[in-house]
Design brief:
Blueprint: H1 14-27, E1 30-31, H2 35-51, E2 57-62, H3 64-70, H4 84-94, H5 109-121, E3 124-128, E4 136-143, E5 146-153, E6 159-164, E7 167-171, H6 176-181, H7 187-196, H8 199-222, H9 229-236, H10 241-257, E8 264-265, H11 271-288, H12 292-313, H13 321-336, H14 341-355, H15 367-386, H16 402-416, H17 418-429
Parallel strand pairs: 2-3
Antiparallel strand pairs: 1-8, 2-4, 4-5, 5-6, 6-7
Helix pairs in contact: 1-12, 2-4, 3-17, 4-5, 7-12, 8-10, 8-11, 8-12, 9-10, 10-11, 10-15, 11-12, 11-13, 11-15, 12-13, 12-16, 13-14, 13-15, 14-15, 14-16
Length: 431
């Protein structure tokens, strides 16, 4: 079934259609805990498997953005422990490398006690990786006369090297070609795909996102997690649809950043981005009483726009990724209201015009507040367009045409904020 196809019929090739489905399948995957410390745990689990025994000492070299995002967030199944050491210990003791970003999703009480013991007793040397990649993790374990090494680069589960005693057991690629292909995404094609996709091709992917992300959002509202940003929104402001959309998205982050042992479906490597791109759209859909099919199409749109804009920025940077996901959610909400391609494109440009440059100073409790801000901005972008208002090319970093604006934002975040990223890390480590 085709919905609101402005061009009068299908215009996607079979190859492009399959590629868009595969992008959703590859990006919308489950993770338990903040994905950077979980990637450390995954690397540690792979290194422990290669070593074949418990290590006697450990060395880890990580890029600055990994330090930034692992420093202040609670690692699940550790009873509140934070930091690189906790993530390493959890992966070594209880990690199941086959579970990837759910590597420490099943941990016994005995293993939790062992994690605490290892954090106190295992000699760990942490260094800043000399790498050109913002995302880089290298874990080296030692026991007796043996050693193992695992390196993850560019993406959270992209293992590029596994060694034992210097012998290469596995060698992978950085995936530059795969990442480069994402440049073929466009807002116009994303809108067409969202209209034309056969729901059965995306339903398992999107249904899992709805189930997982709403479950942790609702837990964030129920429980006393972190700063309780979501609960504060509901108590301090009129609980209208926009407030609920912000509150529930923030609540998911409240829970997730503070050790909740529920998985989320990530987007572009981030659970916070996955929740921001999905939860507000679901809240609006519930209020509007639309069909399930429209929800799947709107979430397809929101997720792919988030992936498209975030790709040009890179996996990690000084630019808060929630801003992008909030803009994607605004586009999904525009779709729910019957928006056409022009409505979606203008919503995106308006949203990107306002708070592009919101800094990422690591994963922690205040991410929930940034998510609320990002959702507010996405909704504002749509409401401005509904009121006949917009920002034009030449207004700051905004360019004429949605794709040109996306390129500007990527340039700002990827290139312009490099020095900012280093200074954020310096500030965070200056204690």
């Amino acid at each position: 079934m085709l919905l609101r196809n402005e061009k009068g019929g299908p215009n996607m090739t079979t190859e492009k259609y399959s590629y868009y489905v595969n992008v959703l399948r590859d990006e919308l995957v489950p993770a338990m805990g903040c994905t950077e410390p979980i990637a450390i745990a995954y690397a540690a689990a792979r290194a422990r498997a290669a070593l074949g025994t418990m290590p006697e000492s450990c060395e880890i070299a990580v890029s600055g953005n990994i330090i930034k995002n692992a420093k202040s967030v609670v690692v699940p199944h550790t009873r509140g422990m934070k930091g690189i050491g906790a993530a390493l210990a959890a992966g070594i003791v209880a990690g199941n490398p086959d579970a990837r970003l759910e590597v420490i999703s099943h941990v016994t009480e005995e293993q939790i006690a062992e994690i605490h013991r290892l954090v106190k007793t295992l000699p760990i040397k942490i260094t800043l990786a000399e790498s050109e990649y913002p995302f880089d993790i290298g874990v080296r374990l030692f026991a007796g006369g043996n050693s193992s090494f695992v390196r993850i680069t560019n993406r959270h589960t992209n293992v590029v090297l596994v060694e034992r005693n210097g012998e290469v057991l596995y060698e992978g690629e950085i995936n530059e070609a795969i990442e480069a292909k994402k440049r073929e995404l466009s807002v116009e094609d994303i809108f067409t795909f969202a209209n034309e996709v056969d729901i059965k091709d995306i339903k398992p992917i999107i249904k899992r996102q709805i189930d997982y992300n709403m479950a942790i959002a609702e837990e964030g509202i129920r429980g006393d997690w972190g700063a309780g940003v979501g609960r504060v929104y509901l108590s301090a402001y009129s609980p209208d649809i926009a407030t609920r959309a912000k509150a529930y998205a923030a609540a998911g982050s409240d829970a997730r950043m503070n050790g909740c042992e529920l998985p989320v479906i990530i987007n572009s490597g981030s659970g916070n981005q996955g929740m921001t791109a999905s939860v507000p759209v679901i809240i609006y859909w519930r209020e509007l009483g639309l069909s399930e099919e429209i929800l799947y199409r709107a979430l397809c749109l929101s997720n792919l726009i988030t992936i498209h804009v975030k790709h040009g920025i890179g996996t990690l940077s000084a630019y808060c990724g929630a801003v992008i996901a909030g803009a994607g959610a605004g586009c999904g909400i525009a779709y729910l209201y019957g928006g056409n391609y022009s409505d979606v494109a203008h919503t995106l440009v308006n949203a990107l015009a306002v708070d592009s440059g919101l800094i990422c100073d690591g994963a922690k409790a205040s991410c929930a507040a940034k998510i609320a801000t990002a959702v507010e901005n996405g909704i504002l972008g749509y409401n401005l367009h509904r009121a006949g208002k917009q920002f034009y090319g030449g207004d700051g970093i905004i360019k004429k045409g949605v794709e040109n604006t996306i390129t500007s934002v990527a340039r700002l975040a990827r290139d312009g904020m490099t020095v900012t990223d280093r200074e954020i890390l310096n500030i965070m480590l200056d204690e």
